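Please go through this chain and its backbone structure tokens and walk me through the local backbone shapes. Keep your notes short.
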Amino acid sequence: MTTSSSRFAEALDQLGLSELHSRIRRFPDETRTAAEAAAAIGCELSQICKSLIFSADGVPVLVLMDGASRVDVELVRFELCAAKVTRAKVDVVRETTGYAIGGVPPFGHRTRTRVLADRSLLEHDVVWAAAGTPYTVFPMEPKALIAHAGATLVDVREPAAS
């Protein structure tokens, strides 16, 4: 059986990103949430790149969002011209990506899905994303991450509360 971390390692090799292997950081405690990851890394919450799976009219779609923000599902629905967008169920996330929630990387998934990346990720020189497990993360320049994920750049962030 292929583990999540070895599946991600294989994906890095296939994408020509072997140099990232040495930059993956493993933590003794889970970094399942953006807040846990930011605390472990010692970076701003918004420097975390969350990989979230939604269901748009029953079809999985990956949304990459900065760790300090929430996805506005209505904006995703509009972007995809979908009738209904909801958070994907746990089994759909694992089936689609090959990874458990909290360890889903932005690329290297089991199946090819449509990917949307929120423009907020571009506000940093480096962002950190899950590396296939709830204990591992890796750094990457946002434009490169978005390109490797095959993402469309969009504005799907919930407005900040005033």
About this structure: The CA atoms of residues 32 and 102 lie 4 Å apart. The radius of gyration is 15 Å. The chain has a mean pLDDT of 92. Residues 4-14 form the longest helix (11 residues).
